[in-house]
């Protein structure tokens, strides 16, 4: 590369976008820490009014509020700022979908500080002792559940529609594996009030699942099966649909293939499996979201990773699934559907 040349033979946008994303997250973090969104929940206000209420400088307040406006979190008209719906729902303390406590990062983000060490050693995660897998899940999940429920709600509605919930398929018996908040099966239950859901997860997580079912008025469609998804006994030949919403990436290939085999037995003949995952291409050159998520799995799990649609199709075919279909639901994770063979 000729450092004296003024022209660039590459586009710096990818790196600049990375830097800009850090700036945006720091701005939102500062606003949360200063109580900006809580203040605006009381009433709209000018920069002068907000600065006085928070006891901070006027110059800094103007810069912060204008930045939040540019980030589409605040509205501004004739010098008066106000909360936009996204900030009101997600950044005001006390909201059921409050995410402000995640602006400093989740427990899963802590490992990024040790990425150099992880690359040198081949990973950071250690093998789970008996009972440790459940303990880890029940410790970190409560912090993430609101984020995942918000992030996945619209895609879940699109997935339920693609699965024909309430239209071509009514009254389905659904097995929601490692269900978390239940967001993926809640969308099915919402679309079809005759659907019946069996939610599987650790007991401490299922407490949250119950609350979300009650919140959305769908609790009467649920039953619960507590336990480790790798160990719990699934009823055989019972279900029309099994949902794996962002689960297999944390299990790794070996455990995923064993789980798929067990789910094939849990489904009725012709029953379907719905997999939502980050899907890189087979060469792992993109899409960026999927490939970078693979690094997250390297840092946070012992065996987890990301796998291509072709790899999942091969695993599914090996345990008796057919008619594998990839459906774009307008999300970073497409919907992969396969059917258990009729014979």
TrEMBL record:
Domain (O-methyltransferase dimerisation) ranges: 19-92
Highest taxon of source: Bacteria
The O-methyltransferase C-terminal domain, residue ranges: 149-321
InterPro entries, per database record: COMT-like (IPR016461), COMT_C (IPR001077), COMT_dimerisation (IPR012967), SAM-dependent_MTases_sf (IPR029063), WH-like_DNA-bd_sf (IPR036388), WH_DNA-bd_sf (IPR036390)
One Gene Ontology term from the biological process aspect of the record: methylation
Keywords assigned by UniProt, alphabetized: Methyltransferase, S-adenosyl-L-methionine, Transferase
Pfam families the record matches: Dimerisation (PF08100), Methyltransf_2 (PF00891)
Entries under Gene3D superfamilies matching the protein: Vaccinia Virus protein VP39 (3.40.50.150), Winged helix-like DNA-binding domain superfamily/Winged helix DNA-binding domain (1.10.10.10)
Gene Ontology molecular function, alphabetical: O-methyltransferase activity; protein dimerization activity
Enzyme Commission designation: 2.1.1.302
Name under which the protein is recorded: 3-hydroxy-5-methyl-1-naphthoate 3-O-methyltransferase
């Amino acid at each position: 590369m000729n450092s004296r040349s003024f022209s660039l033979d590459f586009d710096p946008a990818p790196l600049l976008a990375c830097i800009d994303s850090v700036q945006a997250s720091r701005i939102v973090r500062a606003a949360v820490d200063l109580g900006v969104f809580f203040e605006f929940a009381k009433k709209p206000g000018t920069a002068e009014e907000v600065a006085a209420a928070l006891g901070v400088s006027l110059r800094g307040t103007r810069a912060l509020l204008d930045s939040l406006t540019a980030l589409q979190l605040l509205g501004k008209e004739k010098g008066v700022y106000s909360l936009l719906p996204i900030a009101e729902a997600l950044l005001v303390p006390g909201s059921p979908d409050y995410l402000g406590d995640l602006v400093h990062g989740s427990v899963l983000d802590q490992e990024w500080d040790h990425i150099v060490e992880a690359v040198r050693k081949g990973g950071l995660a250690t093998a789970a002792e008996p009972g440790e897998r459940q303990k880890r899940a029940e410790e970190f999940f409560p912090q993430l559940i609101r984020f995942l429920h918000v992030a996945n709600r619209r895609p879940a509605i699109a997935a339920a529609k693609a699965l024909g919930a309430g239209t071509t398929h009514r009254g389905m018996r659904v097995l929601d594996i490692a269900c978390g908040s239940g967001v993926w099966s809640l969308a099915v239950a919402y679309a079809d009030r005759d659907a019946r859901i069996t939610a599987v997860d650790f007991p401490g997580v299922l407490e949250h699942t119950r609350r979300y079912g009650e919140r959305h008025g769908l609790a009467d469609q649920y039953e619960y099966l507590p336990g480790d998804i790798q160990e719990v006994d699934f009823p055989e030949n019972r279900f029309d649909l099994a949902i794996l919403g962002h689960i297999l990436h944390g299990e790794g290939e070996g455990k995923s293939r064993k789980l798929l085999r067990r789910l094939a037995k849990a489904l009725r003949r012709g029953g379907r499996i719905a997999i939502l995952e980050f899907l890189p291409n087979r060469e792992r050159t993109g899409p960026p979201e999927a490939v970078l998520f693979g690094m997250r799995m390297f840092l946070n799990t012992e065996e987890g990773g990301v796998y291509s649609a072709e790899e999942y199709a091969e695993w599914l075919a090996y345990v008796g699934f057919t008619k594998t279909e990839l459906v774009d639901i307008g999300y970073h994770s497409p919907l992969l559907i396969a059917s258990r063979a009729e014979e």
